[in-house]
Amino acid sequence: MRTSKTMIISVPNIDSLDDAARRFADSFLDDMADDKRESCIVALFGKMGAGKTTFIKALCRVLGSEDMVTSPSFSIVNEYADGNGRPIYHFDFYRIKNMEEVYDMGYEDYFYSGNLCLVEWPQLVEDLLPDDTIRLKIEVLDDETRQMLIKNF
Asked: What domain range is 114 assigned to?
């Protein structure tokens, strides 16, 4: 079980994104090897263009993925593999029209697989997120600078 914590990570420019992703992974995903966990979900909040997908690309790199990470805007979910071959699921719920679409795609099979699930536009499925979801909010400070507020309850 994760302990409750809050963290702020400043990202002054795109070149520092991998370092920010590594700090996030080291602080919040340290129990990924624990096969007993039911869920490992990171909900990424932020306005359009804040850098949610860009951060996910950096995080996948840091976790050893060699897959091409792209936004699943139309497919809703993409699957990648981390450096150990474990699945990483990347969701983008921006285009869902109703909750029935989420139920039909079998979200529970992903969310409760024990594998890392990275969720863009989670506010559209907030009621479906487990209590231990890590919430990461990206705030745009200027053209290049971002600040990430991460909460884990």
From this structure: 5-152
Question: Exposure of 85 by Cβ count < 10 A (0-12 exposed, 13-18 middle, 19+ buried)?
Answer: exposed
**Cα three-residue angle 137-142-147, rounded to 5 degrees:** 30
Handedness of CA 22, 30, 109, 129 (dihedral sign): negative
Per-residue model confidence as pLDDT tens digits over 2-21: 567 899 999 999 999 999 99
Tell me how far the alpha carbon of residue 149 is from its chain's centroid.
13
pTM, whole model, 2 decimals?
0.92
Q: Over the Cα atoms of the chain, what is R_g?
A: 14
pLDDT in tens, 75-90: 899 999 999 999 999 9
Looking up residue 11, the CATH number of its domain turns out to be: 3.40.50.300
Task: Sort strands 40-45 and 134-140 into parallel, antiparallel or unpaired.
Answer: parallel
If one counts the domains in the chain, the total is 1
